[in-house]
Input
Amino acid sequence: MRCMLVFCAIFGLSTSVAALSAPAPILLDESNPLVQAWPAVTLLSDPQKKLGIKEVMEARDRFTTPETAYGTLGLRKDAVWLLVPISVSSQSNGLWVLDIDYPVLNRIDVYLTHDKTLMEQARLGSLQPQDQRPIRSRSHSFGLKLKAGANYDLYLRIESKGALILPITLSKPSEFHANALGEQMLQGLLTGLALCLLVYSLAQWLTLGEPLYVKYAILIFGSLLFSMLQFGVGAQYVWRGNTWMELHTAGLASLIAATGSFLFIEQALEGPDVHPWISRLMKAGAGFTVFFALCFSFDLIDIYIVTAVISTLGLAPALLGLPGAISRARRGDSVGIYFLLAWAAYFVTTAVMIEVIKGRVGVNFWTLHSFQFGATFDMLVFMRVLGLRTKALHKAVEHARRERDSLHSLAHTDPLTGLPNRRSLNASMADAINHAGPENVVAVYMMDLDGFKQINDQYGHDVGDELLIAVAARLRANVRHSDLIARLGGDEFVVMSSGLHSVQQARDRADKLLEAFNDPFALSEKICRIGLTIGYALAPQDGSDAISLFKRADAAMYAGKNDGKHCARRGDGTVPASSHTDWQPLDGSKVTEF
Output
């Protein structure tokens, strides 16, 4: 008897303590248009998922206060019943909206009771098609019609394959619509930004063929897909009523984002700062995430395994890339600095979201949006990294182009005078001769300087080189812009003139070149006088290919040398053309020095 009395006393005391510790009902009053329900929430676990509303109502005393953080129950495989006692103010019109703003909850059954009588019930959840929901909103919402001054019990049965994050509110319809519109605007801005970055990166990939852009696009697509699921935009506009998408998008989006992170970071940081084995691990990590994504798509693994994989591999790309980014940052490379900045935000926001999912950090606007804000920040920072990468690629391409042009110039240009060499001349001649005709005569003038050897031997190669440069400048000043001047080597030059209308015009141009050398050359320390001997041939009159024209012009030039120098001869295969009768030839041996 004494034992029974003690037992009854203890039981009564514990019941009294439980009654005292039970949350007070939340008061719905017009002066407070938005009420947080979590302070009044108690829960009952249903591991077998068999309890009905009548059984739960009878087990009202078994509800306990949640031991997790504010607004979250973490990851659970059981069905959970929540009890929210409600007291309606006598001044209230009784119109309120229940809202659970975590769109990925799979199934929510709502039961409103009054004096243990079921008044209303509804089914919500992400698996419920939009057109079958009481309110077609992004979140899970239900309109309540309550009596002023009455008390109610609101029972919620919640079942989901993901985290049970439960930001439950009761608000006036006007307040509900204002908050819903604000969140819809925020999601529109962030989703639109992500879509713009996705389209831009894909366009750049198609235009430039740079694989880093498509890897960035994979990363963005995964983050965008996750945000669209988490905040209900996808179910609202994109995959309406698609149950498979609702059950698989969270896991697939996380794995896609992880794959993009591995690939993007590996290529963006490749170089001497990153060891080859890190690059191999990055690629292997991308392979693992793709493998798990395929397994999850075919339901070979469940969301809990995917969550474990993401918890393990989610931070791996940043951790593996950290040494390379630090090395770059120490060298002052802005790419490394941007990566460190992005990862700092990623670590913080991802850690917050993971703790919310696990039920250890409470739910509020910032913690609920932490991953989305962090992902958006990372996308913008990584776009800056892409810009720097593209700039570096452009610099590399420009450097390669300059190197190519330099090599081309060395191969086709005389390094002393800057004139085209024999190789460049041959290419130009072949093209010009192909277009030669009776009204489009091409003249090839072979020229040899008279007296250059004596100047070069007497005053040295420096003076000789300076004289050759001066000769090139004088030739440029006495030919048309369309004419080509080339140096074959030594003191031999060639001028090719195309578009001439007659043989006489070709002869007149030869005379002009001879006259240009009547004046001495004023060098830096000396004034030198040299002559010029020209042999020329015409196309199509004297030949139809470069070799025959060169031979005729060269033979004519040497004939002119033998006839006294400083003259022009045409190599037409007959009698060489005579020199000017009114010109007194110079032997080129005289050098005047000042």
The longest strand covers residues 79-88.
